[in-house]
From TrEMBL:
Any single Gene Ontology cellular-component annotation: extracellular region
Protein name as it appears in the record: Avidin
Name of the encoding gene: Avd_1
InterPro entries referenced in this protein's UniProt entry, alphabetically: Avidin, Avidin-like_sf, Avidin/str, Avidin/Streptavidin-rel
Protein species of origin: Tyrannus savana (Fork-tailed flycatcher)
Keywords: Biotin, Disulfide bond, Glycoprotein, Secreted, Signal
Amino acid sequence: MVQATAFLLVLSLALGAHSLSPRRSPLIQCNLVGNWVNDLGSKMEILAVDRDGSFSGSYLTAVTASMNEIQESPLQGSLQRKNQKGQPTFGFTVNWTFSDSITVFTGQCFLDKDGKEVLKTMWLLRSHVDDIEDDWKATR
């Protein structure tokens, strides 16, 4: 339990990586669709963003402190479509298939000085605990 929590704490999910397949629309210069890799080698794929901003995909972490085998995990998210400035905010949830935890991320897509897409995120992880007295150690 604690090991699964610890591995997710190590993720360092700033996702400060570049898209491998950027596609730009006229209104949203920074596009989430594609493959992303963070500085630790974790991989995220966002398949499509709907008109309402909903998206789905998968996440494959490269790091773990768990004894469980790492598996690709599904993600569901939402992009803020009201931002017409080209660097949208977004949020997504990863339901880890190999542990009893879930992580939510919130972030923004930026275009750096060279025009490359960069995601900056913050995350919050919740692990299962057996008793309410242990609630204090379930969220990281």
